[in-house]
Design brief:
Helix content is 36%, strand content 17%. The chain is built from 9 helices and 8 strands.
């Protein structure tokens, strides 16, 4: 029998935190305050500029991730960062296909290539999917399926369990309220259905996360009743007490 994977909480700092001192203090605080969390993997994804400073701070307790990579391995691509660059910084995770990047023109094909590059370099891709709005006809489900099919087109059946799928409905990001747990559960089941159609019913599932207006008050309900494997957290990951509050509540789930 396969070992049950831990829950996971990932903090996406986005373009926030403006000094190395502040970045180190935040990670040190998360490590200290979440010391008793035993059932949850914790990941922080700072801006690239802090990787060198955080390399010696992260540990088995708090892993280091990034918010993007480039789709090629090397070459004349001014301003880009490849997966290969990141291995020297103990980077274990990379967010790929976040809606904020898709809004700036990132395509499903580019996202697919980035997922492949991450896996080639033994970095876990956190593959983001999500609809901008919902319609009564259910067309948004076809949209989600298309994102999965194209985004995972370069991922083999043996590799799929090494991917993390983060469902973030765009309309819930930055909202005052998260999706309710029943809706989260429905989407988790739908994502699993799509993956089984792609890889077969015996496939080992990736961890499926939810993101969008997550906080310490709703974290446990979303994960426990939404039947997801963890959370992708934005603004609440920028303060130790808020992020650790989420981690502790998720860690209570058996």
């Amino acid at each position: 029998m396969a070992l049950k994977k831990k829950k996971i909480v990932i903090g996406n700092w986005k373009m926030n935190i403006f000094t190395s001192k502040e970045a180190v203090k935040l990670v040190e605080g998360i490590k200290k305050e979440s010391i008793k969390a035993k059932n949850t993997d914790i990941v922080v994804c700072p801006p690239f500029v802090y990787l060198a400073d955080l390399k010696s701070v992260v540990s088995k307790k708090v892993a280091l991730g990034v918010q993007n990579i480039f789709e090629e391995t090397a070459g004349s691509y001014t301003g880009e960062v490849s997966a290969q660059h990141l291995t020297q910084f103990k980077v274990s995770y990379v967010i790929i296909g976040h809606s904020e990047r898709r809004a700036r023109g990132e395509s499903d094909t580019s996202i697919s290539k980035k997922i492949v590059r991450a896996l080639e370099n033994k970095i876990t891709p956190v593959f983001c999917i999500g609809e901008a709005s919902r319609d009564e006809q259910g067309e948004y489900l076809s949209f989600i399926k298309s994102q999965l099919v194209v985004g995972l087109s370069g991922v083999s059946k043996m590799q799929i369990s090494d991917v993390v799928v983060a469902y973030e409905p765009i309309w819930a990001i930055g909202a005052t309220e998260a999706m309710n747990s029943h809706q989260v559960h429905e989407m988790s089941l739908y994502i699993q259905k799509c993956i089984k159609e792609m890889y077969g019913t015996m496939v080992m599932m990736p961890r499926i996360l939810y993101g969008g207006a997550v906080n310490a008050d709703n974290a446990r309900e979303i994960v426990d009743r939404g039947y997801v494997d963890g959370l992708l957290v934005g603004r609440e990951s920028l303060k130790v007490e808020n992020f650790v509050g989420i981690i502790k509540n998720v860690d209570l789930i058996k």
